[in-house]
Design a protein that fits this description.
The chain is mainly beta. It has a domain at about 20-25 and about 30-80. It has 1 helix and 4 strands. The chain has one helix at about 80-85, and strands at about 10-20, 30-40, 45-55, 65-75. The chain has a 4-stranded antiparallel sheet, with no helix packed on it. It is elongated.
C-alpha cells in the first residue's frame, strides 16, 4: 500500500447511466444503496473506475433503479503519480 494520505488530484465524473426500473425516485426519501466496482480502466491521461449502484426500497427490498458511474482521475494532476504507481508495481511509459 501507500504510506499516508494521497495529495490533491482532479477527479471527474466522466459518464453516468441511470436506469429507472420502478421509479420515480424522490428527493428527501431514504433508499438502500448497494455499490460495487465493476470495472477499472486507463488511458494515457486518466485512470478510471466504473461503479454500479443498485437503489432499493428499504422496506420491500424492491430494486427501483440502477446507476453506472465512470469516475476518472487525471494522472498529471496528482503530483506523486509516477512514484506511487511504480511502488504499486505498475509499468510506466509503455
Amino acid at each position: 500500500g501507500l504510506p499516508g494520505p494521497k495529495g490533491p488530484s482532479i477527479g471527474l465524473f466522466a459518464d453516468l447511466e441511470i436506469k429507472m426500473i420502478k421509479g420515480p425516485l424522490f428527493v428527501g426519501q431514504e433508499y438502500q444503496l448497494e455499490r460495487e466496482v465493476v470495472g477499472l480502466g486507463e488511458s494515457a491521461r486518466t485512470e478510471s473506475m466504473w461503479i454500479k449502484t443498485v437503489i432499493k426500497d428499504p422496506e420491500t427490498g424492491d430494486v427501483l433503479a440502477t446507476t453506472l458511474l465512470n469516475s476518472a482521475t487525471l494522472k498529471q494532476s496528482y503530483a506523486h503519480y509516477t512514484e506511487d504507481a511504480q511502488r504499486l508495481g505498475k509499468v510506466i511509459g509503455h
